[in-house]
Every structure is written in C-alpha cells, then in structure tokens.
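For the sake of transparency, this paper describes our internal protein records without simplification. Such a record has a labelled line for the sequence and another for the backbone structure tokens. Nothing more is needed to write down the fold, since each code stands for a local backbone conformation. For reference, a complete record is included directly beneath this paragraph.
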Amino acid sequence: MDKSQSRQLRSAALLGVAALIAACGGPASRPTDEAPVAASGCPVCPSCPACPAGGATPTAQATTRTLQPARWSDLPGWQDDELAAAWPAFLHSCRALAARAQWPQWKTVCEQAKSLTNPSTTAVRQFFETRLQPWRVHNPEGTTNGLVTGYYEPLLRGSRTRSKPYLQPVLGVPADLLTIDLSSVVPETRHLRLRGRLQGNKVVPYFSRSEIVGRQNEHAERILLWVDDAIEFFFLQVQGSGRVRLTDGTTTRLAYADQNGHPYQSIGRLLVERGELTLEQATMQGIKNWARANPGRVDELLNANPSYVFFREQPLKGGEAEGPQGALGVPLSSERSIAVDSRYVPLGAPVFLATTLPDSTSPLRRLVMAQDTGGAIRGAVRADFFWGFGGQAGQQAGRMKQQGQMWVLLPPAAAPK
C-alpha cells in the first residue's frame, strides 16, 4: 500500500469512527456509579461515558509533567496508615504485573516482596520507602486536587428460571454485537472499543437499551438468569459487577462482559432537570427511593439512558470474602483498591490517596492499589474507591464525592523519563 492509499484509508476510517462514535464509541472498561449531580446541573461521575472516550492520549512529555517527584514526608498520613492491610493487594498487583510488559520494571521489587510473610506495618513502610519513589500526580493544568468517588459490589436476588417476582433478565453478550478495533489504522482510537452490528453489508450502531429490552425474546439463549428488581439491576449495570443470591440458596457472581456502545446518560441528572429530585437527592439511594415511589415510571426512566451492560457469570472462587475482578485481572480488595485513568496512573502501581470520608471532613488517607478502570474515571487526579461488598459498602459508595490528592509509588526502573 503506497502513502496515498494509506492516507485515503485513514481518512475513510476516521469518517467511520466519527459516525460510530456518535452512538457506539465507548471505553474498554466498566461503567461507574450514578453519582450525585453537580451544582452546574451536570452529573459529576457518569458524565464522561456520554462523551467519546477518544480524547488525546497523553504524550510521554505530558506524562512526565503529570508525575512530579515527591518526598515521603509530603504524603499526609503516611506514617499513620495501617500499611500491612494493603500488602495482600500489592501482592495481587505483582502477580498481574508478571504477565505484563511492565514486568521488567517491577520484577526486582515484586520478587523481594515474596520474602516477606505477614509483614508488620513498620516492615511494609520500610519496604516501600527503600525500594519505591513517590510521585505526586498533577492535572494537565498543574493542579493537584481531583474528584474521588466510590463504588461497590451489590447483592441482588435472582432465579435460574423466570417466575414472579424474578422477571428482569440478565443478558450475556449477544452474538451479533461487533467490537471494532481500528487502532492499527487510526492510533487515536486505541482507547476506544467501537461497537456495532451488521445491517446488510454496513456496520451500524448496536441497539439502544430500549431496543434491547423490546427485543428480549430474540436473545432468549443469552439470558444468564433472572432478578427481581429493575432498579437494582440497573445499578448492578452501573457498578459493573455484583452477586446474585439464587432461590436454591447459592450465590453466583456477575462480571462486566461488554456494553452496547451507546453513551451513558445520567438518570439522576434527568430527574433533577424534570424537577422530581433536588441536587442533594440525586444520589444512588435517592434515585432508588424515587423508583419505589413511582414503580409505573421506572422503565421509561431507565430507557432514557441508551447504554446497556452485558454480563458473564463467574463462580466465587475465593469464597465470600473475595472481591470482583478488576481491569488488572486480579480480585479487588475492599478499601484497598481503586479505579484510575490508566493513561496517567499505571495499572498495578501502589497509590497513596489523601481524601475524606463520604459527606465528611474526616480524613481518609490510605495506601491503595490501582487495579481497575471505569468509563467515567477520566483525568490524572481521579479515583474511584472500592468500598467492598454489600449494603454498608453501597451506602458509603453512593455518598462519596470528595476531593483528593494522589501519589504514585514507583520503582526506579519505572520512573518517568
């Protein structure tokens, strides 16, 4: 192929990308919480999935500006955190990094970590301080504060067969859903997974949520199980994973498998715009309360968001205590894992997070691991804090919309050049 043909192909691909992005471009990651709505009227957390995730990828120079060298004494609360509680999560990161391209940068540190068995907080602190360097995370404009939200793993009630009250189907990935990778032709799309379907010899956007719901009979073979509550299932789709307690007493896990490619539209924002909730009420719990009070209008509300998440079923291999698998490919650790924008913060790296507890000024300063990503986790100083499993974790996650600062801990071999 000569240069002229290459340019023509690239131009054609860009036109195709533009058309698909209008309806079916999305990040290759789970969605995230239905967060409170900002005073501006825009949703704080889910606004980004509504936009194409194909923004300019930071260059090496931009990444260098993002991470600035710091001293251990710069980390507020570093001396106070129970660092030993983060050690198992760090070992999870090491196991995942061993299969990634970054392994040469982490090999020495991770292999030395194997020699520590049940280390004390003092031993963990000494280990990190003698082998890693803290790097403060800066936003492109030079600020160091950013949004910290929360997420969790919910529990739903379900059945293997359809019967009252289990009438809400949980769908696996449809056979006609296409995932289109144009990164070899258009490198700017490497952070995008374009979804569509074939219509004749054309690729068109995949069905929206309302269309999928209306065509459920066509996907009967893809139904994994049935759950009893449409609004709880919606928030399961928002969280990206969860557990289902079945009628026979067993519990299974549903993990994010794919998405229809349509942009996420915040139903909380919609309720505020309609005057049915105030800004303060537009939280996850507030939306659930509205749904309980308006059962006949729930479907119409949910269908206003064209995005739809498909799942795969996973066994609870590690028992009830094991968290869902994050983007790094390891189980998330309650209150020790975060989702990040991996364009700025490398997956697998330890991160010291300084923020506050939900709806509070009480400090939350903790060593966590960057082990997940999220469709709305966009930006350098941006984190989604994993609270764990169950109702109490959900209450914390649903209320969390704090400001915070981040420091990435890297070995010398992984330091920005």
In short: The chain is about 25% helix and 25% strand. The radius of gyration is 22 Å.
